[in-house]
Amino acid sequence: MPELPEVEAFGKYLDRTSLDKIIENVEVKNPELLQNVDADALKEKLEGHKFKYTKRYGKYTFTALDNDFWLILHYGMTGRLKYFKNQDEAPSYDRLLITFEDESHIAFDDPRKFGKINLASSIEEFVKEKKLGHDATEIDLKTFKQIFERKKGAIKSVLMDQHIIAGIGNIYSDEILFQACIHPKVPANKLNDHQTEQIFKVMKDVLKTSVGKRIAGEELPDSFIIPHRKKNGKCPNSDIKLKTIKISSRTAYYCPNCQKEIFE
């Protein structure tokens, strides 16, 4: 599933390819992906207008139109953006196809159809309506600590809860806890100040590094656990086989040597 770094990269990709072009046609191929807007209304608000810039909040891309509306994309499990000029470059699973006057296109490609397409006039109102938590790149340490003090759930679950902290999912929560040397089952409110501060620092560092890599189209560092999150994968530090555990119905990967199950 695309998480904050991938979504940030999608926004930059749209900025590079699709700004300041008049939208000639909008084709909604799977209207079930639409939320709070129907296909006709989406076409009306987009056609004849231009994209001006993008913003990201959590796992959402907000694309500003020149009519004060925002096209909002959530990528679900498999969504991505694909810009192309020739039809032989068209993606196989485009759910929303936007054609510009210069005959180029940008498509919302989503094989599993878990993505969502919204239209709104205010980012702030949308975030409020969705009850999203603080964006992971914007939250400060004081607020971060206050949140953890109140949460009894496993630290991995807290990091993944979009109503608490927006942008982190299954993959990057594993990375953050691996680099912070914290077991994913530790209750958030059992962490001491040093551990909480370590998770906060690591979260910021991991996201910054990952955003840079994703925008550049590069692989994540081999020192990350993410490239090793697979069957028989080994810890990049200790070469010990990684273990898995189910937390909030998601599979967590962790190193039993680096992330010991100690709650004190």
From TrEMBL:
**Record's InterPro entries?**
FPG_cat (IPR012319), FPG_N (IPR035937), H2TH_FPG (IPR015886), Ribosomal_uS13-like_H2TH (IPR010979)
Write one Gene Ontology MF term. Answer: zinc ion binding
One GO term under biological process is: base-excision repair
Please list the residue ranges annotated as the Formamidopyrimidine-DNA glycosylase catalytic domain.
2-115
Q: Provide the leader sequence positions.
A: none
Which UniProt keywords are present, listed alphabetically?
Answer: DNA damage, DNA repair, DNA-binding, Glycosidase, Hydrolase, Lyase, Multifunctional enzyme
Superkingdom of the organism of origin: Archaea
Catalytic activity reads: Hydrolysis of DNA containing ring-opened 7-methylguanine residues, releasing 2,6-diamino-4-hydroxy-5-(N-methyl)formamidopyrimidine
The cross-references to PANTHER family, in alphabetical order and at most eight, read: FORMAMIDOPYRIMIDINE-DNA GLYCOSYLASE
What does the sequence similarity comment in the record state about its family?
Answer: Belongs to the FPG family.
Report the protein name in the record. Formamidopyrimidine-DNA glycosylase catalytic domain-containing protein
Q: What is the lineage of its organism?
A: Archaea, Methanobacteriati, Methanobacteriota, Methanomada group, Methanobacteria
